[in-house]
Structure formats: structure tokens, C-alpha cells
Amino acid sequence: MIVGTVMRKVKSRTWKKQRYFRLQEDCMTIWYKSKKAGNTHSTFSVSDVEVVREGHQSEVLLSIADEFPPDRCFTLVFRGRRGNLDLVAESAEEAQSWIKGMRKLIENLENMGQKEKLDQWICDWFNKADKNKDGRMNFKEVQDLLKMMNVDMNEHHALRLFTMADKSRSGTLEDDEFVQFYKMLTQREDVLKVFQEYSSDGQKLSVQDLEEFLRHEQLESEGSQQRALELIDQYEPSETAKMLHAMSIDGFLMYLVSPDGSIFNPRHQSVYQDMTQPLSHYFISSSHNTYLLEDQLRGQSSVEGYIRALKRGCRCVEVDCWDGANGEPIVYHGHTFTSKILFRDVITAVGKYAFKVTEYPVILSIENHCSVEQQRTIAHHLSHILGDKLLRTTLDGHIADGLPSPEHVTTRQELKGKILLKGKKIGGLEASLNGAAEESIAGEVSDEDEVADIDEDHPHGDSMRRKGKKSKQRLSKELSDCVVYCKSVRFHSFKQSRLHSKFYEISSFTESKARKLIREAGADFVQHNARQLTRVYPSGLRTDSSNFNPQDMWNVGCQIVALNFQKAGVEMDLNDGLFSHNGRCGYVLKPEFMRSCQRKFEPDNPQDREGYRPVNLSIQAISGQQLPKVNIKEDSIVDPLVRVEIHGVPADQAKQETRYIDNNGFNPIWYETLQFTVHVPQLALVRFVVEDYDKTSKNDFVGQYTLPLSCIQQGYRHIHLLSKDGTSISPSSLFVRVRITDVA
């Protein structure tokens, strides 16, 4: 890999071009360029690669399977929304050396500790700044490096640090000297201040000092002496200090930047909620038009959309089925120019990736526009490709009085590892179990889908509306029988649902219809959602794949709030934030007051709720660390500000921000406190945003982090920022102090 290899980069059946690939000396960066002289090169970091797929495991490589054998082909899958890199090596041996090499490099990265990651980061900067590659840095290279690192430092101070680090008096910094320079540059006065406040002698934290810090500041009172000893053992780099049962400033900083010192409670990283409640008692991570990677009119359809969504913990994916050639149903956004993929390829991908991240059930939301014949083909593919994964009958073999739980287990089968079909059904579940529908080959059902509902966003009707609301559709018995707990029905009213609806019936609403119901009958909507599933999807006008605010829908207990996963933005940040806890399993238990058909919760009047207990949230934004550059101009340095947003019931929607700091994205200091009153903390999400202030135009996004208020650890905490795409931008972080108290 270090010597380099010529491989074909493949984008389609007709686009196959040779590129020269090489692993750079840092063993962290892949460099590649065209074989033609003079062409610019490109690079990507090994840390950007999530996984390596071997053989024909992408649509692109499958399309050229007749041309190149699988043992020469592999795919690099990147984190976030970046497209895959499909490669064909000259030989099977070369392919294997890259596949094994990349997997080893990824494994090494994943096993790195906090200190090793920081050392690697320092090494990366050294290599970037060492322009002439002589293994040392002169003062001019150091000045250029400071600009690259978002540091605006006057020349005199920079020279003073440079001279102090240059122990050899050579006028350049070599490896160890550069590390010393970096340490002086990144000295954390803010952390030192806290350290000295609790240190008895100003030099170290004894077990008693650390115990007091954990109890008074971090509000960790349980077994705090044992906890203090564990933290010293885990994070203290000095063996001498460890023997004395003490923590140095270096160990204290390592603790604060670790998961234990994170704002996100590590105890919530695994499944910790009650998973034995009915499905309707959970928020369920859900995707809209999952097959699309881009916009809704001309974008590419791909099975990669399903793979990406399922690997993010999504538990409800959507499939739009239409008649295709040769009797094979296709998936695409009907009556648009989006590309088409085969239904059987979608189901194969779903079957393969559904339970890679979590075992909890997946709901396959079918929007069926097919003829009866091709519906039978759909049913055949579902049964033969998914096999035992497809739920074909009720778990107990009889009708219960409510939906099963994600963890439902009987002597016969369990819901974990199962795929549930959401779609239209002939008759009810009772008739299916009693065999009453055995005789019919096909039946008529009312047309209930996104196409029929599109007139809600076009009140006067136009070319986008293609079917009347009252039209009927022929449905094959084979496909109907695949639907068990999620029968799609048209919604009439909350009263009608309360009196006549079955627990296994589910209605879908456009965002505008859902908002109308929230305005008119919010409390009724909450009670409806305690018993039945509801799906909400984006307006047909969102042709750019933008999203609506999901929080409005969660406030009334809607479980399946379907978003365009391919579109980054605040809405997907909220979705990622809500589903970041409970083991990222795609199911989050709703608050207790939203799970009862008897209790009343009105999101617009939270103070009327029984058990109403508002809290005060105080966040002191102390400092930022190594914020990324957002402007590619060499001399541009970030002017950062921090905004804290509360997303919840209408009374809780709020945001406040700090002042901006001039020309310092490396270690800005704020020491500003932002205060909020939160009326329904159980539903609140807190979003931290860093922006680059611009007085003449819109501020530039730098990084963000979103989490449920219920997952926040109090005290001095680091917030590890994420990119717009939701991927890590380590070591960029914020340092804050958090307090949550009951309103007096």
C-alpha cells in the first residue's frame, strides 16, 4: 500500500478510469491521482472510511460483474452521506492486500485511546506543515501551521513559544520539540483553574480531592471513593502518581475529554429503557423514500439508501413499488425522473442489513402501485428472500388486545429479528386468523397512500394529483397476508378511531394534516398515539428532500416520523439526537404521561399535566478547542460563538447565544452562562451549535451536538462536536459547566 497500486475507479458501467493509489507515510492518509501527468491529486483519511466490502457488494460493481471477477473488486464505504468508492485491482492478490490493509488500519484506529488519537492528530499537523518534508519545522512553517489550525497569534508570542520549545537551539522543531510546542500552545488554563480549586497542594488531586470534585461538581455521589480510584487508574498517565493514588493535571484533562467526562451520560449508551411496552409506546426512527440519495424529482435511487439508514439504527424504511419490465416490480418515486431499482434488490439489502446494528424489529412501509400480478411477485420475494425474518402471523397465534412490544417473546417466536410489513390488507386480522379470507384471490381496498394525499399540499389540485381520494385498488391475497400488525387505513376522526379502530391499524399523515390535527386536538392526538401507530411524512412540495421539524410530531406522541435521511440539517440533528441513546436501537420509550389512553397531556398547556415539574437548565459555555476552519481562504480564522437551542413543547422552544470571539478557533474562551426554564424536560432536546460570526452575511456552521435533556451529565463536561453530516470532527469540542435544578 505504501509503494502504491494502479486500480480502476468505477462510477458506472461506462465510467472506469485508472488511478494511482498510495498509503502515505503517516499510515492515515490515502493519496490518489490520475495516471495522466499534471492532474491534481486527491486524498482521504482512513478515519473517513467506515467499512470495506469485498467482491461485488455495490450496485456499481454488480453492474460490471460480467467484466471483472469478484476477487478483484472491493468497495470503500465512507462515514456520513459521502458516496462509496468502488475499485477494481489488477489482480486478486493486490485486491486482498488493500482489503486486509484497510481493515487493519481501521481496526487500529478504532482501538486507539484518547491519548493516542491526540498524538496522531499532532503528527498529522506536523506532516501538513512540514512543507519541504525534512522532518523538522522552521519558524515560517510554524506560522503557516498556526493559521491552518485557526490560531491568530502575534509574531512575538509565537516566536517566544517556538524558542522555548527549541531545546536543541537549531532554529527548527523536531518531533519531540514540536510536541512540546503543541503542549504549550494547548495549555488549558480553564481546566487548570478547576484543578487548582480542588487540589489541596496545587500540584495533584488526592483521592479525597477527586472524590470531593466528583461529589460537589459532577454530582456523582454513589461510591465516589471507589469511582475516584477507578478514574485515576484509567486516566492518569504517570505511574508515580498512580502509585500515590493521585491524579495530575494531565490525568485530570484526560478524564474530562473522555466518555466519562462527556456531557452524554455513558450509562445511556446501551439499551436501558423498558422494552416490554407495546410498539405504540415508542418513538421509532423512520425514513421517508429511503431509496433516494438526493432530491425527490431527478435524484438517484439506490439500495445504498436502505443500507445507510439501517446502519444508522433506522427501524422503519419505505418502499414505493411500481410495475416493472419482465414481471419484476421496481422501486422509484413515481411519475418523476428519479432512477429505478429492482424491488428484489431492495429486499435483499434489507434482509442483509436490517439487524446489523440492533436486533429490534424493522417496519417495511410498502406504498403499493402495482398490478395484482406484480403484487404476487412482491409477496413471493418477501417470503423467499426474507424467509423466517418476515413476520407472517401474530406472535401468540391469536388476537391480543394491543400491539406486541419490541422485545415480545412467546414460546413460539419473538419480535426481535423480525421484519413487519406495513401496507393495505383485505379485511381484518381476525378474518385472517379465522381463515375467513381463504377463498378470495384478490380484494378491493381503498387507495390510501402519499399520492392520494398529495392534494393536501395542493388545495386546488394540479398535475401532481393523480388519484381521487375515494378510488379503489385491487390487492392480491398473497401480499395482504404478509401484513399483520401494521394495516394501513385512512384516518377519519379521533372519535371514530377511539370507538371503532383496531390496535393494529395505522394511519399516515402529511406534515400539514398532522399540524392541523395538533392545533385542533393535541390532547386527543396524544391519546390516539398511546394505542395506535401513526406515521407522518414530508409534504410533496419538498422536492429538494428538505425536512419538517420532527419535534412538533413527537410532542403529540407520533411514533413513525419519517424524514429524508439523505438531507443534513437541524431536523436530522434532532432525529440523531433523540435516537442517540438507549443503545441507538431505533426505539425510544415515550414519557409515561404519553403512554396512557386515560391520562390527558396537552403539549400547548404543559402546566395542566398531573406531575408537572419544570426545571431550570444553566449552561456555562467556558471554552472551545480546535474548532475546524470553515473558510478555505488561507488567512481566514474563525470568529466563534456558541448557541444553545432547546427543542420541545412550544413553551420550551428557546435559544440563546454567547458573544463571538475575534479570530480564535483554536482555544476561544467565553465564560458566559445561558439560562433556560424547561416545562417538559422528558421531551426536550438540547442542541449546541458553534458558528463563525459574519457581520455582513449569514453565519457559517462550524459544528453541533444534540442530545436529550434526560441524557445530560451535570458538572464540568466536554461536548465532542459533530459535522453537518453527523460525523465526528475530533478533537473539536466545547467545555461547559451544566446545572439542572427544580424550579422553586
Describe the global form.
globular
Regions with little confidence, pLDDT below 50 for 5+ residues:
451-469
Fourth-level CATH superfamily of the largest domain: Phosphatidylinositol (PI) phosphodiesterase
Quote the average pLDDT: 88
Strand content: 15-25%
Question: How far is the N terminus from the C terminus?
Answer: 64 Å
Q: What fold name goes in the CATH topology slot of the largest domain? A: TIM Barrel
What is the CATH domain class of the largest domain? Answer: Alpha Beta
Radius of gyration, in angstroms, nearest whole number: 28 Å
The appropriate CATH architecture of the largest domain is: Alpha-Beta Barrel
Give the helix proportion (percent range): 25-40%
Q: Give the beta-strand count.
A: 30
The total tally of domains equals 5
- Which secondary-structure class do the elements indicate? alpha+beta
What is the count of helical runs?
A: 21
User: Order of strands side by side in the largest beta sheet?
Assistant: 13-12-11-14-15-18-19-20-21-10-22
Specify the biggest β-sheet: 11 strands, mixed
- What kind of assembly state do the chains in view correspond to? single chain
